[in-house]
Amino acid sequence: MAKETKNTLRDSVYSALKAMIVTGQIPPGSRVTENDIAAKLTVSRTPVREAFNRLERDGLVTGRPRQGYVVTEFDINMFREAFEIRELLDGHATELAAAAATEADKARLRAMLAECERLAAIPERTNREKFQELEVGIDLHRVIAEISGNVMLHGMLCGILDKCQHYVWTELLWLDEWKIARDEHAEIVDAICAGDASRAGTLARAHVRGSRDNVLRLLQAKSDYRNFLAKAS
Amino acid sequence: MAKETKNTLRDSVYSALKAMIVTGQIPPGSRVTENDIAAKLTVSRTPVREAFNRLERDGLVTGRPRQGYVVTEFDINMFREAFEIRELLDGHATELAAAAATEADKARLRAMLAECERLAAIPERTNREKFQELEVGIDLHRVIAEISGNVMLHGMLCGILDKCQHYVWTELLWLDEWKIARDEHAEIVDAICAGDASRAGTLARAHVRGSRDNVLRLLQAKSDYRNFLAKAS
DNA sequence: GCATGCTATTTTGTATACAATTTTGAGTGT
DNA sequence: ACACTCAAAATTGTATACAAAATAGCATGC
Fold first, then answer.
1. How far is the C-alpha of B65 from the C-alpha of B40, rounded, in Å?
2. For residue range A66-75, what is the model confidence (pLDDT) as tens digits?
C-alpha cells in the first residue's frame, strides 16, 4: 500500500487517520473528536480538521455540525451497493487492462500472485501474515485498474476499495475460503496476460459477485446471530 | 440544482466556489488564492481552506503545497475517460431506474422533459435560458441516478457530472444540436416509464456515447484551430 | 545585454484564541 | 421514582497571528 506521506502535516494526519480507519483500529461507528486525534498525533487541531474534511469527502467518516465525526458504519445494503458498482468498474478496468498491459505490467501482476501464494503457504502463519495476503489480494485489483490506463477509473475504484477494505480486517478473517479467491485471481491474471479482454472482464465480474456473496452471507449470519442473542436475553 | 447550503460558513463557501467553478465563472486553469476568495466572500481564510480541501477531493481544483490552487483543466483525454465511466454508470443507473421508478418518479421525469421543451421553444431566448435548458438536461441524469436507489452510484455519477459540467458552459453553447439530446432524453424516459430496463440501459449508453462524440469533436476542432493559429503566426 | 544572487512580497501551513452550540449531568420539585 | 430546568463542560466553527516556503523583482557583476 503506497504510504504517500507528503511533507505537510495535513497529509500525514490524513494518511494516519485513513490507515487507522481502513484497518479497523478505529472501529466503524465509533466517535472521533478532533482533540483526541490532535493529542494522539501531537499536532494542532487545524491539520486534523482538514484531514477530517477529506475523509468525509471520501465517505470514510460522516460529520454533523458541532457534533463531531463518526467512522462510517457500513450496513449490508451499502455493501450491496458498493459491490454492484465494483462489478461494473472492476469488470471494465480488467477488460482495458487485458488490452493495454505491457510485459512489465504482466510481470508485476504475476509477482503479486506469487506473493499471495507464498503467504498462503506459510505453515502456521500469524494474523499479520493473513492480513498481508488479503492486502495483496486487494492491491491486485488496484494495480489492474492502474494498468487499465484510465486514471479516473483507477481513482474511483481505489475509493470504493478503501471504503470496503475495513470489512476485510474486521470480518473476513473468519472466512477461510481464500483459495477460491486465489484461483480466481490467477485466472484473471492469466486472461490479462493472454490479452483476452472479454474473458478477463467476465472473470473479473464473476469474481466480484463471488466476493459479494461471501461478504453478504457473513454479514447476514452475524446479523442473525445478534438477533438470536437479543431474543434469548 | 440542489443548493444544499447548510448553515455553516464552510458549506456556503464550498457551494459558492463550486458553483463558480462549475459554471465557468472561474475558468479552468486559473489560479485562485485563499485570500482572494476570503476577501470576496468576506470570511476568514479558515472556511475557505476547508472548502478548497473538499473541492480538491472532488477533483475540481488541484493544489500543490505552498503554491496555491488551480482550477482543474480538462484535456481531451480526461473527457474521454470521464465519458467512458459515465457510459458504465449511467447505463446501469438507468436500468435500475426503469425497474424501480414509482409513479411519482415518472411524473417527475416527464416534468423535467416538459421543462426542457418549454425552454427550447422560447423564440429568441437569451443565454440564460439556454443555460437553463442544458442544466435541466444534465439534472435529468442526476435524477435518474437518484431513482435507481443505489445511493453510492448516485453520488459517484453526480461527481462526474459536476466535473464535466463546466465544459457545458464554456463550450457546448456553440453547438446547436440539442434537439438530438432532447429526443434521446425523451426516449430514455419513455423506456423507464414502460419499465423496460434493458432498452432504457441501451438507450442511455448510446446517449452518453453520442454526447461524448459531440464534445470530443468540438474539443478536437478547437485544438486544431489553436494549432493552425500557432503555425500561421 | 544577460545571467546570477539576494531580498521583499506573496501565499500557504500551523497553532491558538475565542465564539457558538450541543450535550450532559446535577439538582429540584412533584 | 420521574420529569423538568438550568448551568457547566465538551466540542466544533471561525478568526487571527505567526512561521515557512516559494515566487518575483531588482540590483549587481560580467
1. 23
2. 888 999 988 8
